[in-house]
Amino acid sequence: MKGTDMEICINIVTSGRHNPSLSIKLDSEAAVAFVKGLFCVFGSLEKTIEGSVRAVGRTYQQKTVQLMSDLRTFIQNNGNRKELWDFYNVLSELDEGEFFAISSKQLSEAEYNEIKENVLQLNVPDYEGFRRYRTEVCGILIDNYRMVFYEQERKQLRIGETDKAKRKCRFCRESMPTVKFNKDAHTISEGLGNKSIITNDECDTCNKTLGKEIEQDLMTYLSPLRTFSSIAGKHGRTKIKDDSFAIYEESPGKIRIDLFDQEIPELKHWTFKEDGENFTLSFTHPQKLNPQDVYRAIVKYAIGVMEEVELPYFQDTIDWVNKENTAVDLPKLCFFLDNNPKDDKKPCITVFFRKNSDKTLPYSFIDLKVAGVVVFAVIPFCNQDDRTFSKEEDWKHILEVVKIFEGMPLLKVIIPNEDEEIRMTYNFKIKKHISGD
């Protein structure tokens, strides 16, 4: 088959957000052979009536070990092209047996949406239930809000200005040379498992200061869940200990709890009770934290993913994040159990922005999934709001619209009006497991 002037566009479509494509101009026999080879990985070769050979790919396929091995070999034998590794990395994120689609044409928006919906239908066991949920629960939300979504991926995701010389820090509003932008500012703390989501326009000074003064409080608050979820941060696995107890990951997937009696009762910071088929462990964390700083850290993540056009609405919010002021009338901060975490080691954040003028709803709120929990927080001090949303009737109205948390067990509600350090006590119910050894 000789080269032509035709161009082919190969698309990978999954249930996820990142779906790469590759355009190839068929202007040489080598280019044609390359495309044939790629489709051999995903499909097969067949002979035409005229006797020539053409590649035929199945639109809907499943991820398999053999497919990934064949694709890796093809990439290595064809110059390790970056676009092909994008294909490989996206498919690597799928579960074994999960469906995806491959297309060999430029897709219109309608065609892309149709294929993506078909992939969802193949991957979701109760697709009709999922459609009802999306219509009845998410429909009201989508009518009122638009969203910005980021999740941990293999590919690094950079938010904000790419040119250092043009950057202006979101948090101190300073530019070079007053501040520097030499270090990667992780949008969500690296200690929560984020390795790839980076905010370009957060200066080195703010990154260090806010990391120490507010993000560390959130790390402390979530440290038991980080330990139980085996989330490794910048300095390795999380270990919680004082003179009377220690909780840590002894080996991959195995958590060890050491409890030590103390002669002085006040130095014993734990209780352990047996209750039928369960154990109940209560302990007081050795490190203090500021509940309002826990809230500030979560809001900081939201500021880190916002488009630049939104930032002027949140200047008072940013001042509060920077601890330039305190607050005594904040909304609730809610922690729900994630009923269906695909991977609790990979954080993701969704920030919602109101599309209409209905001020009975907050202009913006956050849905943060990390360490097996979902955090729901209204972003305070927005100049598009006319209330604090701290009253119970306001809260009930929000939950009538934001129904995405329905069915999720509520683990903890923080009323973060105190802006001072406290010690947190945690209660865990542990199910007995009798080993067969």
Description of the molecule:
This protein has 437 residues and is an alpha+beta fold. 29% of the residues lie in helices and 26% in strands. The protein has 9 helices and 22 strands. The strands form 7 sheets. Strands 7-18-19-20-17-21 form a 6-stranded antiparallel β-sheet. A 4-stranded antiparallel β-sheet has the order 2-1-6-5, sandwiched between helices. The protein is globular.
Describe this protein with a few key phrases.
single chain; 437 residues; alpha+beta; six-stranded antiparallel β-sheet; four-stranded antiparallel β-sheet; 22 strands; 29% helix
Strand tally? 22
The neighbouring-strand order within the major sheet is 7-18-19-20-17-21
Q: Give the fraction of residues assigned to helices.
A: 25-40%
Assign the structural class, choosing from mainly alpha, mainly beta, alpha/beta, alpha+beta, or little secondary structure. Answer: alpha+beta
Distance between the termini: 64 Å
Estimate what percentage of residues fall within beta strands. 25-35%
**Shape assignment:** globular
Query: Uncertain segments of ≥5 residues (pLDDT<50)?
Result: none
Main sheet properties: 6 strands, antiparallel
Number of helices: 9
Rg measurement, Å: 25 Å
Q: What do the pLDDT scores average to?
A: 86
